[in-house]
Amino acid sequence: xxxxxxxxxxxxxxxxxxxxxxxxxxxxxxxxxxxxxxxxxxxxxxxxxxxxxxxxxxxxxxxxxxxxxxxxxxxxxxxxxxxxxxxxxxxxxxxxxxxxxxxxxxxxxxxxxxxxxxxxxxxxxxxxxxxxxxxxxxxxxxxxxxxxxxxxxxxxxxxxxxxxxxxxxxxxxxxxxxxxxxxxxxxxxxxxxxxxxxxxxxxxxxxxxx
Length: 210
Ligand SMILES: Cc1cc2nc3c(=O)[nH]c(=O)nc-3n(C[C@H](O)[C@H](O)[C@H](O)COP(=O)(O)O)c2cc1C
Known about the structure:
The protein contains eight helices and six strands, in the order αβαβααββααβαβα. The protein is of the alpha/beta class and 210 residues long. It has a six-stranded parallel beta sheet, with helices on both faces. Strand 5, helix 7 and strand 6 form a beta-alpha-beta unit. Helix 2 packs across helix 8 and helix 5 crosses helix 7. The longest helix has 15 residues. The structure holds flavin mononucleotide. The site of flavin mononucleotide has 14 residues, from helix 3 and helix 5. Flavin mononucleotide binds next to helix 3 and helix 5.
């Protein structure tokens, strides 16, 4: 019997799914912030998540150059954490099993299609399967939808996910912090996600009531 790896045990392990809703900047900011916290991340991009990464952040924003993208945008603090990338069709990846000690998952942004898949337990992809694992194991699952307006089926799917135990955290930046840049808007949503995952966040100042 081998001794437990206490370093790995001390590192919080979370899954991040990135799907093809607009707002991949929320994903990039969230991934960077979790890495700055020293987490290990199991990251999965859907095909449309990959496409939106390029469409919204430019031709150099490629999944296989994710660390370069993160350090260029947010600095070397992201190197405090580690990550592994998985193919969305790889149903044999670690996070497809409840026996893997991944403590929580966020899908950011979460497309209406993936929301529907999670709502109905379809597990058609690794992202959907990992989310299903979070629900069946009663672990934290944060879903960050971005769509407007919403149809009745989409609203019902969100309710179904919430009833199953997911946190619904719509990508809705606030303006009381007087954001100046798009990055400020992304930081607000990423900070909310970190709070929902149980972290103190330093991405925007908490409201003091004054
Ligand atoms: C440019 C672009 C923007 C999109 N924006 C959204 C969006 O904001 N919300 C959404 O639910 N779907 C959006 N879609 C549609 C999804 O990408 C599409 O339903 C896709 O099949 C989702 O698959 P996935 O969940 O596996 O990523 C967008 C698609 C494109 C090409």
